[in-house]
Structures are given as C-alpha cells and as structure tokens.
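Before a colleague's protein record goes any further, I have to sign it off. Would you go through it and say whether the fold makes sense for this chain? Take the sequence as given and treat only the tokens as open to question. The record follows directly below this note.
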Amino acid sequence: MKSSSKKLVALLGSVGLLVVVTIWYAAGAEILYFWRVFFGIHVQSSISPTGTYSADLWIKPNLADFNFVVKVDGKRVYISPDHCRNDYDEKLVWGRSGEQVTLVLKGRRVFAYNARTKTPLGKGELADFDLVPSSEPLDSDCGYPTDIEE
C-alpha cells in the first residue's frame, strides 16, 4: 500500500471516529433519559439489621411525574402512584426485627413489606417500627403521600 493510501485510510478512520463520538455525545442526554425512564434511577440500597435481606429504592421518571419503586431481594414489590417533582426525603427503614422494611416519604410510612413472609403490611401491622409519622402538611400542589395508618 502506498504511503498516500495509508494516510487517506488513517484520515478517514479519524473522521469516522470523530463522527461516531459526536453523534454519541449529542445523543447522550437522550440515551440517558430513556435509560432512566425504562430502568430508573437507583436511590438507596439497604441491608436488614440481621444481614438476611436487602432492599433497594429506585425512582422511575416519566414525562411529567415519577414513581418510587421498592425491590426486596431483587424482586419488585412496590411501585408508587404518580408523584410530581418535589423533594420527598425518601428512604427505606428496616424494623427492629430486621424482617420488615418501609418506604418513608416526607416522614410518612407509605409502604411496608415483610421480607420473611413476602407480603405487604397494612394498617395496624407496623408495631415493629419506631418511626412516628409526620403530621406536617406538604407544600405540594399535586397531592402528597399519606401514612399507612391514616
């Protein structure tokens, strides 16, 4: 191969790489957005006090709102109703026994799950938690989470 042919191939390779990088960079925000919509954004991982169970909290954005997703031992056990964009101070909290985990949004226990029996918990079943729900109103114009006990 002639020297000029090698230079041309190298130049075309460089230009091709530059085009690919430019397209990837320009589409990066869109790719990231669609990744978040389909897979969500990981917020928190939590291991039970006994080390037996694990829980993960994800946020799944939609176009104008988002949902909270709770996974226990890798299995999705809860997806919240739609929430508008706001600071919910979201967190997962384990009960004293290390078997029950609850999703807390703005101090309210909105979902609780027993990892041992693999069942959601309802009203009257939260004695294992020391957390007292907040009674402060939320400054949100699109509804706010209510405590399980309400």
